[in-house]
Amino acid sequence: MKSFYITTAIDYVNGSPHLGHAYEKVLTDVIARFRRQMGDKVHFLTGVDEHGQKVQASAKKKGIPPQQFCDEVSQEFRALLPKLNITNDDFIRTTEARHKAVVRAVLQQLFDKGEIYKAEYRGFYSTRQEQFLQEKDRLPDGSWPEIFGEVTEIVESNYFFKLKQYQAWLVEFYEKNPDFIFPAFRQKQVVEFLKEPLNDLCISRPRERLEWGIPLPFDEGYVTYVWFDALLNYYSAVADRPEIWREARHVIGKDILVPPHAVYWPIMLHAAGLPLPRGIIAHGWWLQRGAKMSKSTGNALNPLDLVAEFGADAFRYFLIREMNVGQDSDFTREQFLVRYNSELANNLGNLVNRTLNMTTRFAAGTLPAADATVEDDLEKNLRALWAKTRDEIVPLCEGYQFHTALERTMVFLTETNAYIEKRAPWKLGKSAELRDQVLLRTALATMAEALRLAVAALQHVTPAAAEKINAVLGYAPGNDWRGELEWGTRLNGRKVEAALVLFPRPAPPEKAPAPAKS
RNA sequence: GCCAGAGUAGCUCAGUGGUAGAGCAGAGGACUCAUAAGCCUUUGGUCGCCGGUUCAAUCCCGGCCUCUGGCACCA
Description:
By secondary structure, the chain is an alpha/beta fold. The chain folds into two domains: 3-283, HUPs (Rossmann fold, 3-Layer(aba) Sandwich), CATH 3.40.50; 332-484, Isoleucyl-tRNA Synthetase, Domain 1, CATH 1.10.730.10. It contains 19 helices and 17 strands. Strand 2, helix 1 (19-37) and strand 3 (41-49) form a beta-alpha-beta unit. Helix 6 (184-193) crosses helix 10 (257-271). It binds one RNA strand through strand 2, helix 6, strand 9, helix 7 and helix 10.
């Protein structure tokens, strides 16, 4: 069984989860579920980043120890996962002993190899913000912005990682692995970036300035700064299972691709003699009217509100249907409702209900067998469309084009609805003719089988709905997903439920929407 | 400034060297198994601008304009 290890970025606990966090979890979960369906042995990791200046400051502000602060905020992020139906196998916190031990071991190893050295860092320091400033922080007239307060030039000793000496190696690596980063245009950006010379990387902070971090094993007067702490979580979680680590893929936001994940991380691993991940998937951002969604601009949507209102499946479906992985996308409640109503409620949900209803009404609730002797173009065309759809969606999903795969599945559902109109079982049901009765049974079997197949194609995106639909069809899918995608007779003789309203239409906009029960 | 992405119907986007496509929204119709759902038909576009190549360009080339993002210690 092929191993597949996938990670999300770890979230910084100095704030509450928002849509961006939720999207990354959902996208990674969809990939993880898809790979499981394809037969891979998946290991799915997510977690939180808990060290650093901001956490230390926030804890101090609340008058509680940093660890307690982390415990509280981490719980918020952790609680998000089951609500989104995320199937992560592990959840790592950078304050855990297993992580700290690996970080210290890697740092010590690199130090022993001479990859880390101590040097003086000279720069402009803002006491108020407790950070070094960059030249680009200056105002056009050369002065420092008001928020930094008093700025003084100071000299500080720190430890540096020899990043620069691996630049040529990294350039060559990207030449040899043109598909390392998805989407491809992001890798081009990285290659462009690497045309400028790199500097060595400052990886420490003196304890007087930053207490809340992992102490350097070779100098306890310093803690390690973000890179060797946060990035290493991917490895520290599976450090004892190299067969998993070798198949790592990282899902991250485009904002942390360059330089952290595309430059620092490969070089860190290479310097430490560790295998590199298989690839990086850099997703885009959700925007609102073209502006990045963030807390500071006051337009952040609380994802849990939508999940509570419409259910995790509808939320997951929208995120995956609407976003072309790697691109940015707009998020509006209006657009959400368009997708929800037209695709989930009307196209899929209504098909479920009418199938159940007709089976109950015209076949006493037991799905009949199709009769091949009466099948004509209507059935053959639908089957042919399914074969085409199935052949398309598997490679689309393998290439992270989930939005297109969903679109193809919707086309198939639309054609299934159209098939029903053309066959009109409600007319056949009123006829006593033998041929009409055979056609009726064929129609019922065909629509149910089409529904089962579409649901199989959707199940990594809308797992709860898939389970529910299979249940009302009296069906329990097997473990061989590829086999489940074959048009067949699996539903023959199944006893179905009389009705199921999935994705109920929300109340008109004037009134408050009714709470959804998925 | 440099690099990248994008400019196609009201909205979101596909697309190809040879009379412009889909979904949604809008309009009309027939039907009734169904979540007033589904189905059929339909209105709607000088494919950012200017040149060039070509028998022929939205798609190729050059130039220009506009929007978005990235440009190192910031998660």
